[in-house]
Amino acid sequence: MDVLLVGVPKAGTTWLSHVMDQHPGIVLSDPKEPNVVATHKGTFVRDSSEPNWSEYDDCFSGSGLRLDASIHTFACPVAPERIKNRFPDARFILCLREPVSRAVSHWNMVRNTGEAERNRRDWRTFEKAWSDESLRVDSMYGTSMQNWLKQFDLDRFIILSSSRMRSEPLQVMSEIEEFLGIDNWQYDLNMSRHSNPAVGRRPMSRFGSAVRVVFSLIPGFAKSPIVRFLQKRDLNIYRLPLLSRKGVFDPLDDGHYQVCGEELCEELALFGSLTGFDLSEWEDGIRGRVQ
Q1: 74 has a pLDDT exceeding 70
Q2: Burial (Cβ within 10 Å: 0-12, 13-18, ≥19) of residue 179
Q3: pLDDT digits (tens, 9 = 90+) for 262-285
Q4: Could you tell me the fold of the domain covering 3-201+247-290?
Q5: Which residues have a Cβ under 8 Å from the Cβ of 134 and sit 6 or more positions away?
C-alpha cells in the first residue's frame, strides 16, 4: 500500500476513489474498502486481531501506486502505528466534511442499510445514535489527527474539504497529482457518478435480500468482472424498485446541531491547531446554529 484514502465517511470519498482509479498510475484496491489494516471494519464492527497481510496484498493487482480507500481508518487508534511499522513511506489523503452534517448523513445512511438493527443498536433518533461511539468517532477530527501525528509528519497528508471537491474538482485532482508525484490526467469528474448520497439510499426489499444471498454464492473469480463492470458504470442493481424500497431521510436542521455542535467545535479547534488547516467557517457556522 502506497496511499491511503483514510476518511472520513460521507465526505465524497466514494467519488474521489473512483476518479483516482481512472489514473493509469494508480491501482485502487478491490474491494474499494478492504478494511484489513484498521481495527474499524466499517461503522460497527471492531476486530483487534493482527491483519492478514497476505490477504491484503491480494486486494491489489497491476502496477502503480496502490490506493486503499478504507475510510474508517482515520478514526482507528491502532491504524497509525500498524501502518508505520508495515508501510513507513505511506501517504494519506484525508477528506473532511462539516462534522455535524457528516454525522447526520452517516446516521441516515445506516438507518436505511439496516446495519444498526443487525448490530443491535438503537439509532431511531439522532440523539440516541450520537450517544453511540460508532457514529461519534468518525467526526472526532482533532482527536484522530492527534493520534496520526504521533506516527507521521504532517507533510505526509493532503487534507481536502468535501465542499472544495464539489466546487473545484479539477484543482483538487491537480493538487493530489502533485502530492503523489504522478502525471496529469484527464478525468471524468461528473459529480453525479460514483457518489453515495444518504438521500439516495434505498433499503433492500425481501426479494433484493434473496438476490444478494444468491449473488454471494457465486465464486469470486466469476463475480469480480461483473462487480467491476457495474462499478465502472456506477450501476447499483440493488437500487432498482423491485430489489429495494423507499428509505427514510431526515434533513439536517438546528436540532442536530444542538445535540453535538459544541463538542464538535472543540474537535475542529483542535484539528486546526494541529494542522493549520482553516476550519473556522465550519466552526462559526456550527456555533451560529447552536446558540
Answers
A1: yes
A2: middle
A3: 999 999 999 999 999 999 999 999
A4: Rossmann fold (3.40.50)
A5: 43, 44, 119, 121
